[in-house]
Amino acid sequence: MPNRTDAQKIVKPDADGIAAAARKAGKKGPPPVHLWNPEFCGDLDMRIARDGTWFYLGTPIGRKPLVKLFASIIRKDGDDYFLVTPVEKVGIIVDDAPFVAVDFEVSGSGRDQAITFTTNVDDEATAGPDHPIRVARDRETGEPSPYILIRANLEALIDRKSFYRLVDLGVHHVVDGTRWFGLWSGGEFFAIIPSADLEADG
């Protein structure tokens, strides 16, 4: 999180107040968080775990409508995540990505294939130029962590069961002279792993 001044640390934002402001701002459609530039009001004791569970004051938030409300006003500025309303901007902790892609549907085939993901907060995104898939690999274990861009610079971690299904859809394709194993969606090819590495692992 960014450095906070002592004055900022004294401020204790309230989740109920943030929720009320979000409800008011979102009555006419998705909240335009990219247009809002309120003053930073301090950090909120809220965390999104890697599995997509939201915690407030150390307790899981069990009400999905409330989670969806908070999810609608997330913004990432630099490396930090915030909940933003027209009048408040509060910092939250995100362990990995703010969303989790928990399922997907496929239409078409080959280069005409389209893969549409659904997140844990019911957002949908079809992988393509505006919603790219990327795969990060752990430097020590080589374990892949796949992501899809949902909106602005907010990604969803693709859950394990969905990733295994995606692998079943994978094909080999040459990109800039290198043969890759990856996926087609929305007219784009998304490389997952060099074919040589995959074959060596096999």
Describe this protein with a few key phrases.
single chain, 202 residues, alpha+beta, 6-stranded mixed beta sheet, 20% helix, disordered N terminus
The end-to-end distance, rounded to whole angstroms, is: 41 Å
The order of strands across the largest sheet is: 3-2-1-6-5-4
Q: What is the makeup of the main sheet?
A: 6 strands, mixed
Oligomer: single chain
> Which runs of at least 5 residues are low in confidence (pLDDT < 50)?
1-11
What does this structure look like?
A hairpin with a 6-residue loop joins strand 10 and strand 11 (144-151). The protein contains five helices and 15 strands. The chain has a six-stranded mixed β-sheet with strand order 3-2-1-6-5-4. With 202 residues, the protein is of the alpha+beta class. Residues 1-11 have low confidence and may be disordered.
SSE topology:
Elements: H1 6-10, H2 15-25, E1 40-48, E2 54-56, E3 59-60, H3 64-71, E4 74-77, E5 80-84, E6 89-94, E7 99-107, E8 114-119, E9 124-126, E10 133-137, E11 144-151, E12 154-158, H4 160-169, E13 171-175, E14 178-185, E15 188-194, H5 195-201
Parallel strand pairs: 1-6, 7-12
Antiparallel strand pairs: 1-2, 2-3, 4-5, 5-6, 7-8, 8-9, 10-11, 11-12, 13-14, 14-15
